[in-house]
């Protein structure tokens, strides 16, 4: 990939990451508190928030996958060096983000959905020490932590994607005459 193409991919990656982070922050900081304050039931607010988070989960997959395009061409060039460089550190953060997407989409969110379906009543109607409420609170806490971890990673990756070194072409050896 040429340096010019890498810059374009970096711009696309940065835009996708920061757009997702903005949407997630907007929901997490502005919209979710409004839902829980204005809707008559915390259960209804939680169901709506859950649907939004599921969609944000899928959008996160897209954003972090696009960010992976900035990584592909650089990884092999950096692997030739003996030291840990910026691409390997960036790659580790990208891997953590993708693992957080995986955990959220396929482990935590289905667990929250199953608990809500089993309860078939507002969560707050259960006693604080009810096993389903305890399980729900743990799963919800994990979901929230993964959500904010991905926001931080998206902001960090989006801010630093353009700082990664461009892949340099190795000079062709000059044939000896």
The averaged pLDDT comes out at 87
Gross morphology is: elongated
Largest sheet: none
Class inferred from helices and paired strands: mainly alpha
Helix content: over 70%
Number of strands: 0
How far the N terminus sits from the C terminus, by CA atoms, comes to 32 Å
User: Uncertain runs with pLDDT below 50, 5 residues or more?
Assistant: none
Q: What's the alpha carbon Rg, rounded to whole Å?
A: 21 Å
Topology:
Elements: H1 3-38, H2 42-79, H3 86-119, H4 131-160
Helix pairs in contact: 1-2, 1-4, 2-3, 2-4, 3-4
Q: Notable features of this structure?
A:
78% helix, elongated, 177 residues, mainly alpha, 0% strand
Structure description:
The chain has helices at 3-38, 42-79, 86-119, 131-160. It contains four helices and no strands. It is elongated and about 85 Å long. With 177 residues, it is mainly alpha-helical. The mean pLDDT is 87. It has one domain.
In a nutshell, what does this entry contain?
By secondary structure, the chain is mainly alpha-helical. It has one domain (3-163). It has helices spanning 3-38, 42-79, 86-119, 131-160.
